[in-house]
Design brief:
CATH architecture of the largest domain in chain A: 3-Layer(aba) Sandwich
Distance between the termini of chain B: 59 Å
Structural class of chain A: alpha/beta
Number of domains of chain A: 3
Largest interface: A-B, 32 and 34 residues
Number of helices of chain A: 12
Strand order of the largest sheet of chain B: 2-1-5-4-3
Structural class of chain B: alpha+beta
Distance between the termini of chain A: 40 Å
CATH class of the largest domain in chain A: Alpha Beta
Order of helices and strands of chain B: HEEHEEEHH
CATH superfamily of the largest domain in chain A: Response regulator
Number of strands of chain A: 16
Number of strands of chain B: 5
Oligomer: heterodimer
Helix content of chain B: 25-40%
Chain lengths: 352, 112
């Protein structure tokens, strides 16, 4: 499997893209270089593939580099961004850094110091992927704690992929938060669970209404305990997990594709292993059994022992057992006699 | 015997299980059959329609079965879908045959 990082270069100049592809090919880590001639094409590529670094021109028709970077900052917060432009306006540089780009390179400088440019890109390829980043690469929780310790007042705007949130800090205390439609403490807890993203510090809003009264330490402690509880399953949860794994192992060992258990009562949920179509298969099994029952009654043929069916893709076996019905899917190549024998063996061990 | 008749009433009706094959059209009409002519045709037609319903219900569940087998305590039915209709094989199960697991593919010739 190819584990090389991918770099995406966006520029409306085809010759420049060709030159970049050759030039970046000299990077020691040998990343895969992809190019896009427009911002929209670049965003489409980023939706389909995980890129590590984006090199983006500023002056492009329709969607310029700043528009691309603004979207990228929200949708792909992990992505390292570099502006490469021929425009030397210092205002553009400041604006680019304000948007959170890692590097701002003039094309002329890049040609003058090619090795330095390559070293910079190589360092971006190797930098950490997870965590929150602001312009100075600080950690979100560190910043909140620092603001609280220093008794500062500010508003933090946080982005994690498509999600956005705000945290209000007043006089060293977190007084409110908003995230994903939640307010106050619930919102703050949500933000704490976000693994990565970007944030920026905005001026304080002194008149903002306080909804959080707990101290930051208390909320962090509660969150830590909640995480520990969820990561330490109860014995019942452990047993259920072990049973689930054992059943999947048995299924795989016997060579079956899937197994669905259908309770006699329609209001009880069917359960499935190895398939996502549990409800569809269960509904079919119930109907097939009713139809089979009618046939059995008309012929006075006795109870249904088993029903089966096959097509080019798989074979199905329906076996009533102890008040519920097992539907087991098998690959087409399994010989039917063996299929019945193995199915019965699976059912015998299923609840043990 | 007169005494026994008085005691137990009339003799119970015993229906023999059918054996043979039925070819059924997509509309549920029995086209040909090798099941004994003494067996009620209406009952055969009903069975044929129930088998077609089984195929229909499988299609509705996106399972699209080509072959089907129903194994009852005393009877085994196997069927293959052909152009919307079906060929149905019916075989009574004795103690010996029901113990052995029958193979649907030995009863129905393969398409290939």
């Amino acid at each position: 499997m190819d584990t090389r990082h991918q770099i995406l270069v966006v520029d409306d100049d085809a010759d420049w893209l060709d030159m970049c592809r050759d030039f970046l090919g000299q990077l020691p880590s040998k990343p895969e270089i992809r190019t896009a001639a427009s911002g929209t094409r670049a965003l489409a590529l980023m939706d389909s593939q995980p890129f590590r670094v984006l090199l983006c021109d500023l002056k492009m028709p329709r969607m310029d580099g700043f528009q691309v970077i603004s979207i990228v900052r929200r949708r792909f917060p992990h992505l390292r961004t570099v502006i490469i432009t021929a425009l030397g306006d210092p205002g553009l540089r400041s604006h680019a850094y304000a948007l959170g780009v890692e590097l701002f390179w003039l094309k002329a400088d890049m040609e003058r110091n090619p090795q330095m440019f390559l070293d910079c890109i190589e360092s971006l390829l190797g930098s950490e992927e997870e965590g929150f980043r602001d312009l100075q690469n600080k950690n979100l929780l560190d910043v909140i704690q620092m603001e609280c310790v220093l008794r500062n007042s500010s508003v933090l705007r946080v982005n994690s992929g498509p999600r956005a949130a705000q945290v209000w800090i007043n006089d060293g205390q977190v007084i409110d938060a908003r995230a994903d439609g939640a307010d106050g403490e619930a919102a703050f807890r949500k933000i704490l669970k976000w693994k990565s993203g970007t944030f920026e510090t905005l001026p304080a809003e002194s008149n903002h209404v306080q909804t959080i009264t707990k101290s930051l330490e208390a909320m962090l402690l509660e969150e830590t305990l909640a995480v520990e509880r969820s990561s330490n399953p109860t014995p019942a949860e452990e047993a259920a997990e072990a049973q689930f794994v054992r059943r999947l192992t048995a299924l795989s060992y016997e060579g079956a594709e899937f197994l669905v258990t259908v309770p006699a009562k329609k209001e009880d949920n069917a359960k499935g292993w190895g398939t996502r179509d549990v409800e569809r298969i269960a509904a079919w099994a119930r109907r097939a059994q009713r139809t089979a029952q009618r046939i059995g009654e008309k012929f006075s043929a006795g109870p249904l022992i088993q029903a089966g069916g096959s097509n080019l893709e798989h074979q199905l076996l329906l076996l009533p057992n102890n008040g519920k019905t097992f539907v087991i899917g098998w690959p087409p190549e399994v010989e039917p006699g063996r299929m019945v024998e193995r199915s019965k063996k699976l059912i015998e061990t299923w609840d043990s | 015997m007169g005494f026994l008749s008085k005691l137990f009433g009339s003799r119970p009706v015993i229906q023999q299980l059918p054996s043979g094959s039925i070819t059924v059209s997509r509309n549920g009409d029995v086209l040909t059959t090798t099941v004994s002519s003494t067996y009620p045709r209406a009952l055969l037609r009903e069975i044929a329609r129930e088998v077609l319903r089984q195929f229909y219900e499988a299609r509705q569940a996106q399972l699209a079965l080509e072959e089907l087998s129903l194994h009852f305590g005393s009877l085994r039915i196997t069927a293959r879908q052909i152009q919307g209709g079906a060929v149905i094989f019916i075989s009574p199960q004795s103690a010996q045959t029901s113990a052995a697991t029958a193979n649907i593919k030995t009863l129905i010739p393969s398409k290939n």
